[in-house]
Amino acid sequence: FKLGQAALVLNASRRFRYTLDLKKEAQKEEVIRKIRAQAHVIRAAFRFKEAARVGTTTNDAPEAHADGALGFGIKEDQLTALTRDHNYSALQQYEGISGLANMLKTDIDKGISGEESDIDARKNAFGANTYPRKKGRSFLAFVWDACKDLTLIILMVAAAVSLALGIYTEGIKEGWYDGASIGFAVLLVIFVTATSDYKQSLQFQNLNEEKQNIQLEVVRGGRRIKVSIFDLVVGDVVPLKIGDQVPADGVLISGHSFSIDESSMTGESKIVNKDQKSPFMMSGCKVADGYGTMLVTAVGINTEWGLLMASISEDSGEETPLQVRLNGVATFIGIIGLSVAVAVLVVLLARYFTGHTYNPDGSPQYVKGKMGVGETIRGVVKIFTVAVTIVVVAVPEGLPLAVTLTLAFSMRKMMRDKALVRRLSACETMGSATTICSDKTGTLTLNQMTVVEAYFGGEKMDPPDNTQKLSAAVSTMIIEGIAQNTSGSIFEPEGGQAPEVTGSPTEKAILSWGLQLGMKFSETRSKSSILQVFPFNSEKKRGGVAVQVGDSEVHVYWKGAAELILESCTSWIDKDGSKQSMTPEKVGEFKKFIEDMAVASLRCVAFAYRPCEMSDVPKEDQRADWVLPEDNLIMLGIVGIKDPCRPGVQDSIRLCAAAGIKVRMVTGDNLQTARAIALECGILTDPNVSEPTIIEGKTFRELSDLEREEVADKISVMGRSSPNDKLLLVKALRNRGHVVAVTGDGTNDAPALHEADIGLSMGIQGTEVAKESSDIIILDDNFATLVRVVRWGRSVYANIQKFIQFQLTVNVAALIINVVSAVSSGDVPLNAVQLLWVNLIMDTLGALALATEPPNNHLMQRPPVGRREPLITNIMWRNLLIMAFYQVAILLTLTFKGLTLLRLEHDNPAHAEILKNTFIFNTFVLCQVFSEFNARKPDELNIFKGIAGNKLFIAIIAITVVLQVLIIEFLGKFTTTVRLSWQLWLVSIGLAFVSWPLALVGKLIPVPDRPFLDMFTCCCPGKKEGMFHIACFLFLP
């Protein structure tokens, strides 16, 4: 038992955090370092070779037509070398990016054509964006792992010895049964275990592949479309924004404030600015700031990232906290079982050699001086085999298996429910969540934004696209600000078809409104040139752009949170285009309009600008560091954007409240908008609530750590929050003992996602940085999906508890029966083969039946599983003790009084003994079948509720019963059983059936809230040691 490992898991404050295997992580990092070093060596070798070649030949670029490959003007190896070596001089010799694009038959504005034939030609010429994957472990590898179990090895040796001795003493015709039976039973256990593990491994592989299947935007045929990263080809034009992953090697076509985090490839935590002088980008890196477009020049194995990914396998070997904890439980129970087995072995050997072990006819099995060596050894081997088999039954290796099965089952089903699990531990932890800090936009709302109100020229525009009252100059300025100050795009198809708008939901709403105002997107952008961009910043909640109009005129446009932009304005433009001073009265008028829109649950976005002279703009080589002026702005106007609540979100929040989970909304919108949406969603019920129930991020940020913890519990809505405010809220809640789930979609949400117990990123709007920092990806960005994830998380924990109750019942009953029988009579009613069959039922088949129970609404009517809640609850103790004592009572009664009760006193003694033991074995197995039904609903009276929805459970019960009938009726030679009459079958079924009404009555017995073992003063103060204290760690809080 790995005490160190258990201590990590059982530390209450860390229970739900995944504990890294530091040795394995170090080995993985070492592999990556070596591969990265090899890549750098290869690059250096190429550069050295190139330098030598340049020294002996002319420095002319190769002729494009001479190097053409499959119709393109450049070969695969040339492109690969260009990007790998970051060879800027070679790029210039190809006439820069435009010349390279021509060679690749790419329009840098419209991308490739996107036709199937063109894409296939590019894949043939330059390769696909895939890399060879390391093969997963084969089935035989899992068989070999199963064979390494020490107890099974001992049993195989015992089977071999028994087989040899049996053939030697009784001849091959009769002597092979005992040894072969044990050997076959062991092989059956091995192959069933290996098959189960292999299937789970395949499922995890499929989920890993799904994780890597990133969806990204490319420009093909002039329109932005979403494709899988695996469908990317050389020549593609890819728009990139902050938080995106660079999907392939390439060169920057154009960008604004564009910088890349290359630490994943270079190992150095350094942000690298990219521009026309440093345009090369490496696959696998992340966009740290800004936005731009890149031309793909190398894909798949031709990139360093592809080489890296092809060299490492995706087997994380992650062990969840519950798996580690159950490994400890299994080891602890195994030690008890081993102690019992040793005691049984000593007792049986003592009785055997002292002549107190008898045959069915009453004669002693061993008589000193009259027994041959072979016969004596065979008797000892039988005793030894029984002792080892007790260990096999006692060690509940099915516990960790059950966790693996339920996690694999849950992950597969969660995928269908639009939730992709990135870290296994999150499945368990989600069931313990006590609070969810949710974003508003796209999670609680539909993310289908439209401009429904507008206030420009000092007046409300009704409808919002009515510009008749505005002068042409004002309209032109509004349209120019919309078209240039955006990260979105509009594709204007030929033939009069409707334009296609792409970008974030807010950008799409504003661009669509611009189209209603009469904006011609491409034409408007062509009339002015962009000098500098300040990408939208979630801290400052604004984004800006400086554009040159004509020769010397410069306009700096800003848009962002209405009240924040208003604070920076010193004047405003009226409907005639005249600049007016921003008087206190006008400020109040603007604020009133903002509040009215916010009360109507509209997102308020303000537009402002500031004119400059070209002489105020730094020269081009110094422009990268130019900070756009954001004071003394001129207010153009404000729009109100409607984003309706998702249907059903109220029901989901109500369900969370019933389940003891508090939903908190954390949004960047102002307090009034946040209040209105919270009321609409059901997070708030009283419209007049005040601080701290509804609080502004700035106010929360300024509190001390202690004050934040006090306030955090009371917060329901946080408005105007920054990502750092969200992080502070998560820390405060966790310090208060909450298990916190957090949603996030932006790059700056990554720290909060990482800090939370469960980080949930958005699959549609989420950036790759956010996704990589999260534990679960909500693929449809829907809050209802998040609630389904909670149900699955609770189901994982509940299913494990069901299996623990079932297995411990079997453990307790089997151990007591065999120990009491061995000590009292020198024999055991259940032999090695029978115990192996019971082991198979309770381990693999039991795990399959109970670990795949789908979630139900009852799970959402109980409080979350607490951090300090014991693994085995008082309800489980009550249920398993009642069942175990009942089974022990009837089976011991049958062991000692079976011959009389079954009226076998006058039968042949040998046959009567075998018949009695067969009946005991049959009753014991059928008791487990009925016990499995009881384990389905530990705290509900109706054990059949929802059983029709779990076809696997029904199938496993049917298979178990059918195999039991076959064993009793047809395989007696192997299991040392005889056929039972239909009357004895009915009695067996009747005795097992009593389990159901007994369990029903037992569930009416109340249990105390205080943990059962805690009543035995297991407080474990200080650093005490010993098995009893380990048991306290495992079973108690």
UniProtKB/TrEMBL annotation:
The protein's Enzyme Commission number: 7.2.2.10
A GO MF label: metal ion binding
Family matches, as SMART domains: Cation_ATPase_N
Entry's transmembrane regions: 150-169, 175-194, 329-353, 383-409, 875-894, 952-972, 984-1005
Catalytic activity of the protein: Ca(2+)(in) + ATP + H2O = Ca(2+)(out) + ADP + phosphate + H(+)
Chain ranges of the Cation-transporting P-type ATPase N-terminal domain: 93-167
Role according to the record: Catalyzes the hydrolysis of ATP coupled with the transport of calcium.
The name this protein goes by in its record: Calcium-transporting ATPase
Coarse class of the protein's main subcellular location: membrane
GO cellular component: endomembrane system; plasma membrane
Membrane-related topology note: Multi-pass membrane protein
InterPro entries named among the record's database cross-references: ATPase_P-typ_cation-transptr_C, ATPase_P-typ_cation-transptr_N, ATPase_P-typ_cyto_dom_N, ATPase_P-typ_P_site, ATPase_P-typ_TM_dom_sf, ATPase_P-typ_transduc_dom_A_sf, ATPase_P-type_domA, Ca_ATPase_N_dom
Organism: Aegilops tauschii subsp. strangulata (Goatgrass)
Keywords from the UniProt entry: ATP-binding, Calcium, Calcium transport, Calmodulin-binding, Ion transport, Magnesium, Membrane, Metal-binding, Nucleotide-binding, Translocase, Transmembrane, Transmembrane helix, Transport
Family: Belongs to the cation transport ATPase (P-type) (TC 3.A.3) family. Type IIB subfamily.
Subcellular location as annotated: Endomembrane system; Membrane
Keyword Transferase attached: no
